[in-house]
Amino acid sequence: MKKTQNKSIETSEASAMLYMQHSKVLVVYTEKSDREVWASFKAGDEAAFNYIYRKHVADLYNYGMQVCQRDDMVRDCLQKMFIDLRKNQSRLGDVQRIKGYLFTVFHRELFKQIKKENKHSKVLTSFGSAENDFLVETSHESKLIMQEFASETKAEITKALNQLSPRQRQAIVMLYQEELSYQEIAEIMDFNEVKTARTLVYRAMEKLKEIFEVSRV
Question: Considering the entire predicted model, what is its pTM?
């Protein structure tokens, strides 16, 4: 009985030590710039890789679920992306902002998988239909949206966002919910110019204003 208790205590102590070590690692990397963290990751620092994964995987997963609402596909694409990153880490280029880079890679990986499944399934008949299934489920609204539509409820905002075009919804989610830059949005959505992303967001905001004004009549 004592041996079992001792083993249990030792296991708990080991877990506590690992947790403390991990917490220290998080603190260390939180104080570093994205460029420094990425450089450490490229140099083979496993702690840097773990930090990148833990910091961004939840946001990537939430975005993926809004795109296709397929838990298995989103998880598979995330797993493949991070495995590929680790496998090719020494050959990767420099990155100024890790979140934007990960969203770009994940977005392309996810839509490549959706497009691949379209060829073998009648559920999604085209790449365009996959985009049309991009319905926003607001987990948290940005400060700007909340200031702009302070009188609206979360449900009303979600309903209004889902009346936008697929690309407008994507741009709004990436800018205001995921806090990506216009440059990053342009790269993710394959725009040749940043101003195209700005115009898309501007038109989306104008459309939202119209929707709310109509709903109040």
Answer: 0.67
